[in-house]
Design brief:
This protein has 15 helices and 15 strands. The chain has 483 residues and is an alpha/beta fold. Bound molecules: 6-O-phosphono-beta-D-glucopyranose. The site of 6-O-phosphono-beta-D-glucopyranose has 4 residues, from loops.
């Protein structure tokens, strides 16, 4: 299937932190794919900025290596295309906290095109960068900035960050990234809900028994010990990615697929979220195993109280959802890499097949990764004689199969960076949304900090700590298998 590509207007994109992990692993490959698809105009320019005294050629070589690592499949941009993309790159050695490099950056920018500054750096540098952009008069009306997560560490720091950015930029110029919103299947959630009449009448506490949101990873924290020591799964994954998924599942239909209409509805969900009771959250830490070190060893802190896994139960106090629990869980080094949302419906009110009929609930599973698709479990009659025996089967749809074998599912960053250039904020978080998310998350983390009980250990390759099962068991339910 050939995707329809609408080229964006000419732009200068400055990536601060251009030699960092995110820029090389995600941003550059995403740009290269958009270039290969013809979405980037030939006079688009990407300027890497970082402390290292590299020079443009050395930077291009570094990016070339990163592209080689990022691309393996047959649908990767051709070597010729990659070379042409590298020609769009430039590099400026720059000191975020000093004056070095800023005049060179100013000279490299054009006055009459969209200008985007991507802050792919630690949030501690956002303020310095914003101030210098202003001082060197680099902010034009067509300027946008992209702020990577983590956006703050708690409500107070997120507020400070928002206030600081607001001194230099209008809210319409600030693009706070949560890359989950750029995932094709996450956007598909909105299509499934709001482009079909089928689900919406059943999409409420009367018909939905409960919802499970799972983001399980097989990888550990790798080289990100420093970052993870200060975050943990609650800050790294729940406050942003899982909450965004929850919002898209639970929100009211916005009147249009437009930035503020969408963000208003998501905000209402976050504000209606029930606080998490201390007994409704379970933390875990992976043990050593399969030749890999434990989480504590990777952090270099045997007594660490930080979690690599968290599972919790919450609810939404509004007319649509009161009474339907939402169970969220995420962790590293689990059995499989799975991100999915499972909406379990209630039993029919009366069984015409008698009390002994073997019921399984209808479950709609939206698989975000891998093998993106949907799976609806329904009851049918088991074929053959022997009375009316029921069986639950899956109406299983893989998007790749349904949409054609040669479909390449673009990486989230491809969509999001092009949206920045286009000036479309629909898939980015507004300041009040981020603050509301922290306001809900903070008390949970304060609860962690107030206890002496360390996170429960779990075996690598498992489904997480055993205690997570109790969260559902005591409600008469169980987690879906990770796998
Ligand atoms: C990032 C987190 O935001 O998302 C990582 O910081 C996590 O810890 C990653 O591994 C997961 O993203 P994805 O797209 O691989 O599901």
């Amino acid at each position: 299937m050939v995707a329809r590509v609408i080229p964006v207007e000419p732009f200068d994109l400055v990536v601060f932190g251009a030699t960092g992990d995110l820029a090389l692993r995600k941003i550059m490959p995403a740009l290269c794919c958009r270039f290969a698809d013809g979405q980037m105009p030939p006079d688009a320019r990407v300027i890497g900025a970082a402390r290292g005294t590299l020079g443009a050629d050395a930077f291009r070589e570094e990016v070339a290596r990163a592209l080689d690592e990022a691309f393996s499949g047959a649908d990767a941009p051709s070597p010729g295309c990659r070379r042409a993309f590298l020609q769009l790159l430039d590099y400026v050695t720059l000191d975020a906290r000093g004056d070095e490099g800023w005049p060179a950056l100013r000279d490299a920018l054009r006055g009459d095109v969209v200008r985007a500054f991507y802050f792919s750096v630690a949030p501690g540098l956002f303020g310095a960068l914003a101030e210098r952009l202003e001082r060197w008069q680099l902010i034009t009306p067509e300027t946008r900035i992209v702020a990577e997560k983590p956006f703050g560490h708690d409500l107070a720091s997120a507020r400070e960050l928002n206030a600081m950015l607001a001194r230099h930029f209008d809210e319409t110029q600030i693009y706070r990234i949560d890359h989950y919103l750029g995932k094709e299947t996450v956007q598909n959630l909105m299509a499934v809900r709001f482009a079909n009449i089928l689900f919406e009448p059943l999409w409420n506490a009367r018909f939905v028994d409960h919802v499970q949101i799972t983001v399980a990873e097989t990888m550990g924290i790798g080289g990100r010990a420093e970052y993870y020591r200060q975050t943990g799964a609650m800050r790294d994954m729940v406050q942003n990615h899982l909450m965004q998924l929850l919002c898209l599942i639970a929100m009211e239909p916005p009147h249009r697929f437009e930035p503020d209409a969408m963000r208003d509805e998501k905000l209402k969900v976050i504000r209606a979220l029930d606080p998490v009771a201390p007994g409704d959250v379970v933390r875990g830490q992976y043990d050593a195993g399969d030749g890999a070190p434990s989480f504590a060893e990777e952090l270099g802190d045997p007594g660490t109280m930080t979690e690599s896994y968290v599972a919790l139960r919450t609810g939404i106090s509004n007319w649509r959802w009161k009474g339907t629990p939402f169970y969220l869980r995420t962790g590293k080094r689990l059995r499989r890499r799975v991100s999915e949302i499972a909406v379990t419906f209630r039993d029919p009110p009366h069984s015409i097949f008698g009390e002994d009929a073997r019921w399984r609930e209808n479950v709609l599973v939206i698989r975000l990764q891998p093998d993106e698709g949907m799976d609806l479990r329904v009851m049918i009659k088991e074929p053959g004689p022997g009375g009316m025996r029921l069986k639950d089967v899956a109406l299983d749809m893989s998007f790749a199969e349904a949409l054609g074998g040669d479909l390449r599912i673009p990486d989230a960053y491809e969509r999001l960076i092009m949206d920045v250039i286009r000036g479309n904020q629909t898939l980015f978080m507004r300041s009040d949304e981020v603050e509301a998310a922290w306001a809900w998350t903070d008390p949970v983390i304060e609860g962690f900090e107030a206890t002496d009980t360390p996170p429960a250990p779990y075996a690598p390759g498992s489904d997480g700590p055993a205690g997570a099962g109790d969260l559902l068991r005591r409600d008469g339910r169980q987690w879906r298998e990770i796998g």
